[in-house]
């Protein structure tokens, strides 16, 4: 293990503390229950797919020391307790990613959009008209992450990294993705899977599609089953402060077995 500690994760509605473990090739995070002694719902992210993006501090919201963790299936923001911890975490994660790529792993080409938190806007970010209410609910475009109204996100598009089924996208992204697909087809002169299904306008939008907890497990690849992971993590003690087991300043670190 390279480091472990608690990071605050930006979720759809609010920030939540998450216990995070960094290994050579995976990042594991889960919610903390029972006096920080046990945690559940572990999520495992293969690191070669990860890309980090810095976030500037937003003093107004007290959102500081944050960055984005982007993966093909899901992307989100996390916040460390101090500037130093942020630097350490980012450096350690980036180092692991770099070493995996150097060792021949292929980095992901596309990353999922980070969902803008619900409270970012009280009106649709696209039409700028619809006020969100109990009836006019917020939706998230799976392609750009914007908070949009139902009218502005009537379509679904197949984004294979995120789901086997077409997912909700805003009208702007729907057009853009459609054009990209067309030019891709023309360039390659092949018919990529006729997916009338994917392009269909959805008449009866199923509201439940958007209500899923953004922490629900997605199709993360599992090198270890979550049960195994929980068992092996159970023996670890958890501290507020992150523990960095390796020094990033070490010139050569032969922790990679591959
Ligand atoms: Zn709208
Ligand atoms: Zn969009």
From TrEMBL:
Residue ranges annotated for the PH domain, each copy included: 1-98
Keyword Zinc recorded: yes
Residues of the signal peptide: none
Recorded GO MF terms: phosphatidylinositol binding; zinc ion binding
Annotated Pfam families: FYVE, PH
Domain FYVE-type residue range list: 118-178
SUPFAM superfamilies per UniProt: FYVE/PHD zinc finger, PH domain-like
Keyword Iron-sulfur: no
GO biological-process terms attached to the record: endosome organization; endosome to lysosome transport
Keyword field: Metal-binding, Zinc, Zinc-finger
Region feature (Disordered): 205-236
Basic and acidic residues bias (residue ranges): 223-236
InterPro entries: PH-like_dom_sf, PH_domain, PH_domain-containing_F, PH_Phafin, Znf_FYVE, Znf_FYVE-rel, Znf_FYVE_PHD, Znf_RING/FYVE/PHD
A GO CC annotation given for this chain: early endosome
Protein name: Pleckstrin homology domain-containing family F member 2
